[in-house]
Amino acid sequence: MPSPTKDWVSVAETGNDEEAGLIAGLLESLGIPVEVEGPSGASPWPENLGAFGMSRVMVPPERAVQARELLAQRQRQFREHLLEDVSHPSEDDE
After folding, report:
1. For residue 71, is it within any domain?
2. What does the DSSP 8-state code read for residue 34?
3. Structural domain includes residue 15
4. C-alpha to C-alpha distance for 20 and 84, rounded to whole angstroms
5. Distance (Å, rounded) from C-alpha 11 to C-alpha 63?
6. Alpha-carbon torsion angle 70, 71, 72, 75, nearest 10
7. Domain range spanning residue 78?
8. What percent of the chain has pLDDT over 70?
9. In total, how many domains does the chain have?
10. Who contacts 23 (Cβ-Cβ below 8 Å, separation ≥6)?
11. Residue 74: inside a domain
């Protein structure tokens, strides 16, 4: 029996299993089915050894555009938050 995720597409790749898990959790929380494909401790290769160490966040093809847009939006929000922190340091930083 073929895997139901066989034709799924990658929407994110990372050399860190934990980061892949966070991305997958975000997408799942928004109702997008997700599978993480990659080392997850089962590979003899170090996580930073090129494609051997990459974890891929996979979604159904019909949800790929939506998933990529959501991830891009979160990335923009994160960058904006970082810029705010740099331009408005807290009193603790002084």
Report:
1. yes
2. -
3. yes
4. 26
5. 10
6. 120
7. 9-88
8. 68
9. 1
10. 12, 14, 57, 71
11. yes
Measured distance CA(59)–CA(56) in Å, rounded: 10
Tokens of 47: 């996580």
Q: What is the pLDDT of residue 82?
A: 78
Q: How far apart are CA 92 and CA 24, in angstroms?
A: 34
Question: Hey, what are 61's tokens?
Answer: 């093809």
Under the banding of pLDDT at 50, 70 and 90, the label for residue 8 is: very high
> Could you tell me how many residues make up the chain?
94
Global pTM value = 0.70
Does any domain span residue 3?
Answer: no
Note the pLDDT tens digit of each residue in 12-57.
999 888 899 999 999 999 999 999 988 654 545 554 554 556 889 9
Which residue stretches of the chain are H helix? 17-29, 64-87
In angstroms, the first-to-last Cα distance of the chain is 62
Strand partners, 55: 14
What's the rounded Cα separation, in Å, for the pair 2 and 65? 24
